[in-house]
Amino acid sequence: MIAPMVEIIDTARLMCPVCREESFHRMPDDACVFFLECDSCGETIQPKSGDCCVFCSYGNRPCPPVQAGLCGRDPK
Questions:
Q1: How would residue 6 be classed by pLDDT, with cut points 50, 70 and 90?
Q2: How many C-beta neighbours within 10 Å does residue 71 have?
Q3: Quick check: 45 and 17 in contact, CB under 8 A?
Q4: DSSP codes of every residue in the chain
Q5: What pLDDT is stored for residue 73 in this prediction?
Q6: In 19, 26, 41, 68, which residue has its Cα 20 to 30 A from 4's Cα atom?
């Protein structure tokens, strides 16, 4: 059986948990992002416990590995 094609969206809107500013980012298609510096306040953002990356914790969509089912976490 052939797996259905999944459209991977590689951009996300991220909200900083410290200053609440939103910014847009291109997500890597082959890795999770564990640390990201906020463009507005300079704080280093880390994922919430149980999430694989900052995009899964604070983004408007999960990271590409999760979207593709390669991360072991269900998409939001």
A1: confident
A2: 18
A3: yes
A4: -PPPP-PPP-EEEEE-TTT--EEEEEPPSS-----EE-TTT-PEE-PPTT-SSHHHHHBSS--HHHHTT-SSS---
A5: 60
A6: 26
